[in-house]
């Protein structure tokens, strides 16, 4: 049952512990719920709140500009205050960006505030140098994005699988991009003889498996830098293959492949890409996924659908 805050105020706190210390009638009442939102933000200028003489704070969550300008009453060391003050730069940059964006396109925020309909799911690395929108000169609303260390597609990663499911089933993206980058710390760490400790070592084990699968090719490369670059590329390719193994991708591609007249081809398309921080170029890898899976391709088929002919079934992976 949904109830307004003002309907809860007369009740005793012990009955509603999650609302914070809403104390019994007759005792002093706090002005802000534990959630961090002012009571005004929940119930406006209600009569009950006015009677309680609760200050109408301006730094409410409904006034985002106030989040950067408020009276600092917290007890902290000077060093801590100086460190926290650094975050103010982000507020200044946000204001400048928002102002410039409105100047270029007055309807921009009104438009993206109505929802999203991206064509692309971007699975990239968490490295600070490879923010997806920056690489393609994109804007908010163009990419649905998931990032982790070394752009991994792990079948047991609930975070990744939730993003994938939403992108495929709800947003119905047309393309999925797995983008790695040269000078990848995750790939370098996985290729080193070192225990990085849990949970990082467990995550890197998937990259070590990529090296095992392609060891003959990689060991034949004498130059360490070139070997690393090839390892980055092979890791991207293997993560693309991992996408094809998921039920989310097979289900959607099976559906679209059976309706070629409507969709034109099996969707979503999967693309392997690598970004080079050294020159700023985003490279698309030419990959034959069926060739990489080889004779084992049928092992990963999750659907035996008589409605699809051989050619259409081949499009699933």
TrEMBL record:
<dbReference type="Pfam" id="PF00484">
    <property type="entry name" value="Pro_CA"/>
</dbReference>
<dbReference type="GO" id="GO:0034599">
    <property type="term" value="P:cellular response to oxidative stress"/>
</dbReference>
<dbReference type="GO" id="GO:0008270">
    <property type="term" value="F:zinc ion binding"/>
</dbReference>
<feature type="binding site">
    <location>
        <position position="184"/>
    </location>
    <ligand>
        <name>Zn(2+)</name>
    </ligand>
</feature>
<protein>
    <recommendedName>
        <fullName>Carbonic anhydrase</fullName>
        <ecNumber>4.2.1.1</ecNumber>
    </recommendedName>
</protein>
<dbReference type="InterPro" id="IPR036874">
    <property type="entry name" value="Carbonic_anhydrase_sf"/>
</dbReference>
<dbReference type="InterPro" id="IPR015892">
    <property type="entry name" value="Carbonic_anhydrase_CS"/>
</dbReference>
<dbReference type="InterPro" id="IPR001765">
    <property type="entry name" value="Carbonic_anhydrase"/>
</dbReference>
<feature type="binding site">
    <location>
        <position position="181"/>
    </location>
    <ligand>
        <name>Zn(2+)</name>
    </ligand>
</feature>
<comment type="function">
    <text>Reversible hydration of carbon dioxide.</text>
</comment>
<dbReference type="GO" id="GO:0071244">
    <property type="term" value="P:cellular response to carbon dioxide"/>
</dbReference>
<dbReference type="GO" id="GO:0004089">
    <property type="term" value="F:carbonate dehydratase activity"/>
</dbReference>
<keyword id="KW-0862">Zinc</keyword>
<feature type="binding site">
    <location>
        <position position="125"/>
    </location>
    <ligand>
        <name>Zn(2+)</name>
    </ligand>
</feature>
<comment type="similarity">
    <text>Belongs to the beta-class carbonic anhydrase family.</text>
</comment>
<dbReference type="GO" id="GO:0015976">
    <property type="term" value="P:carbon utilization"/>
</dbReference>
<dbReference type="GO" id="GO:0005737">
    <property type="term" value="C:cytoplasm"/>
</dbReference>
<keyword id="KW-0479">Metal-binding</keyword>
<keyword id="KW-0456">Lyase</keyword>
<feature type="binding site">
    <location>
        <position position="127"/>
    </location>
    <ligand>
        <name>Zn(2+)</name>
    </ligand>
</feature>
């Amino acid at each position: 049952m949904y109830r307004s805050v003002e309907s809860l105020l007369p009740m005793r706190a012990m009955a509603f512990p999650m609302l914070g210390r809403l104390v019994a009638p007759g005792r002093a009442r706090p002005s802000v719920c534990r959630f961090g939102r002012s009571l005004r933000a929940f119930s406006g200028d209600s009569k009950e709140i006015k009677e309680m003489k609760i200050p109408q704070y301006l730094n409410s969550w409904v006034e985002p500009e106030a989040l950067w300008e408020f009276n600092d009453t917290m007890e902290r060391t000077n060093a801590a205050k100086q460190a926290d003050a650094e975050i103010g730069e982000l507020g200044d940059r946000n204001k400048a960006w928002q102002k410039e964006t409105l100047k270029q396109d007055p309807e921009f925020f009104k438009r993206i505030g109505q929802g999203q309909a991206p064509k692309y799911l971007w699975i990239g690395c968490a490295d600070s140098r490879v923010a997806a929108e920056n690489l393609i000169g994109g804007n908010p609303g163009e990419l649905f994005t998931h990032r982790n260390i070394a752009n991994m597609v792990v079948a047991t990663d609930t975070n990744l699988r939730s993003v994938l499911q939403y992108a495929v089933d709800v947003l119905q993206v047309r393309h999925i991009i797995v983008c790695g980058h040269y000078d990848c710390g995750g790939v370098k760490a996985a290729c080193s003889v070192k225990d990085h400790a849990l949970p990082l070592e467990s995550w890197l084990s998937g990259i070590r498996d990529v090296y095992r699968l392609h060891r003959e090719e990689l060991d034949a490369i004498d130059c360490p830098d070139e070997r690393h670059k090839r390892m980055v590329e092979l890791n991207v390719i293997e993560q693309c293959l991992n996408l094809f193994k998921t039920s989310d991708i097979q289900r959607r591609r099976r559906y679209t492949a059976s309706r070629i007249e409507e969709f034109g081809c099996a969707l979503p398309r999967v693309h392997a890409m690598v970004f080079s921080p050294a020159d700023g170029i985003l490279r698309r890898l030419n990959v034959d996924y069926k060739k990489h899976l080889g004779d084992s391709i049928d092992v990963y088929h999750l659907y035996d659908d008589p409605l699809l002919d051989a050619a259409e079934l081949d499009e699933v992976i």
